[in-house]
Design goal:
Residues 1-16 form the signal peptide. By secondary structure, this protein is of the alpha+beta class. It has 4 helices and 11 strands; from the N terminus they run ααβββββαβββαβββ. It has a domain at 108-291.
Amino acid sequence: MLLCLLLSTAPAAVSADDVPVPEPRPEHSTPALPVPEEKPAVPATDAVKTVPAEKPTETPPVPAPPTPTAAPPAPATPPPGEPTPAPAPAPAPAPAPPPPTPIEKEDPAAFEACTKELSTLGVQFKPLARIDDGEGCGIDRPLSVTSLSSKVKLEPEATLRCDTALQLARMTRDMLEPAARLALPEKGALTSVHHASAYVCRNRNGADDGKISEHARGNAIDISSLEFEKGTAPMSIAKPEDSDVAAAFQRSLNAFACLYFRTVLSPGSDAAHQDHLHLDILERNGNFRYCR
């Protein structure tokens, strides 16, 4: 029965003629675009002339403004009521060094008397040509001395002024030989005096500058040792507390040398005179002597 109902309710078959057909749409025609009219060709004479571009006018460079210069600072103004200080004086130039002392001229009569006494004492010497080494160094009438008497040599040979040789010969005869016989009898007779320096062109103490040495004028000699028949006695530092005979002899030599020479620098008197006895005849006012 159910089947009968289903069959009775089924829709009837639809034919093709029963399907509605849509009406055709009317054709819409696309409007035609307007065609532009051709313009007649422009004659050649009417063609646009090309005008060359003008070169830009060169603008001259603008000079840079001058750099402002800072004004110098104004001088300090002293407080009111105070006087203006005077400017500092310019330093004085260094004084020029004094000219060298000229070579001392020997008096002919005094020189003749000096050499005559040397011969009387038995000193062996010979005259030399005038020495002039510049800068004040030199001897007007130098002597080459090889002995201080007929028994005592001077070694090595010494170039000296006559006055220097004469004072050394006098001291040797009057004081040195007698004192040595008294203090050092075991050494025998004195045979020679050894020196370390006579004439030499230099400044005092060998310095680079300063006053010229008396050695540079032939006025000085440095005694280094004494030679005896049986030994040598070197110049040495004799301290006041040294009580042996050798020290007493050295102190005596230092003392009596000041009777003949105007300058005596004994061993140890300064750094430049440690191992020799410096003697010179430098003249000073009032016959002043400098003995150390």
